[in-house]
Write a structure and sequence with these properties.
Elements (H helix, E strand, L loop, with lengths): L5 H27 L7 E6 L10 E9 L4 E14 L2 H4 L10 E13 L6 E10 L3 E10 L5 H15 L6 H12 L1 E2 L4 E2 L3 E9 L3 H29 L6 H20 L2 H8 L4 H4 L11
Antiparallel strand pairs: 1-2, 2-3, 3-4, 4-5, 5-6, 6-9, 7-8
Length: 286
């Protein structure tokens, strides 16, 4: 059992409540498709999995397979402990003190229909000697549609608007740079937003950054189900399915080679199945 201060508790409560609403929305889409698919939830505990004494926390891995969502994972976790000395040097505020706290939500959806885009969303709150929020959301269509891309970005732009005239431009450029596969020379998808190190040195900073993080979560919950419903009944060919499977190989390459969240989970003794839930159920390399 780890002890949480009011800011940490508030962040944890929000991420878990967002998880509940997202999962309910995705189950409703499955019901519309005539499926009775539901999320299966598996709790995990760091101490039970052999993490050193004095560290703790855990999370819940939620996974659903259905007619629309071929595989979707929605995970929440709240953990605390100490970074390994070498890894601590790469983490904001941990250079001189390796102790950390982290809570967040992570979501990846791989869709059955190649016309429906895959998607990623993650938001988190970390405490070292500093406190900050990070996260984002990005759309990953095997077969891009300008209508979907524009709608996704417009909703994120609206979420960013109250937080500064350049917030969307800055965070969308960050996503464009981050979600890139150098060895392939291609982007992972059509972008979104990515932000990190929104430092919360006082209550006012925490409140402002927490408000922004909630706005990102609400934007995702609003727009992605709309896009799914727009495409989920669209016919597709075997060639389009093949295109989707090859594209998924690129997605897997990014998550295994470059994704910072994957590395963070592995370095902090996270649940392996939860960390790797981002990988697609089927993929091909050609």
């Amino acid at each position: 059992m780890i002890s949480l201060d009011p800011q940490q508790q508030a962040a944890r409560d929000w991420f878990e409540s967002l998880r509940d609403r997202i999962c309910a929305a995705f189950e409703a889409i499955e019901a519309e498709a005539g499926s009775d698919a539901r999320f299966a939830y598996t709790p995990w505990d760091r101490e039970a999995e052999g993490i050193a004494a004095g560290e703790g926390g855990g999370g819940v891995r939620g996974v659903m397979t259905g007619r629309v969502f071929e595989k979707v994972g929605v995970n929440v976790s709240t953990v605390a402990g100490e970074f390994a000395p070498d890894f601590a040097q790469s983490i904001n505020g941990a250079e001189s003190d390796p102790r950390f706290f982290a809570t967040g939500i992570s979501l990846v959806a791989h869709m059955a229909n190649p016309h429906v885009p895959a998607v990623h969303m993650n938001t988190r709150f970390l405490t070292t000697t500093k406190r900050w929020f990070g996260g984002g959301a990005d759309l990953n269509p095997p077969i891009p549609y300008a209508e979907d891309t524009d709608a996704f970005h417009a909703r994120l732009r609206a979420a960013c608007a109250p937080f500064g005239p350049d917030a969307y431009a800055r965070y969308s450029k960050w996503a464009e740079d981050y979600f890139y596969i150098p060895h392939r020379g291609v982007h992972r998808g059509v972008g979104g937003i990515f932000y990190d190190h929104l430092e919360s040195a006082d209550d006012a900073g925490f409140d402002r950054n927490f408000e922004f993080t909630r706005a990102v979560g609400e934007a995702f919950l609003d727009i992605f189900p709309q896009i799914v419903r727009r495409r989920m009944n669209q016919p597709f060919t075997e060639a389009e399915r093949e295109e989707q499977l090859v594209w998924r190989g690129r997605y897997a390459e990014f998550n295994l080679v470059y994704d910072r969240g994957t590395l963070f989970g592995l370095k902090t003794g996270g649940n392996i199945d939860a960390i790797l839930m981002s990988l697609p159920p089927l993929a091909k390399w050609s």
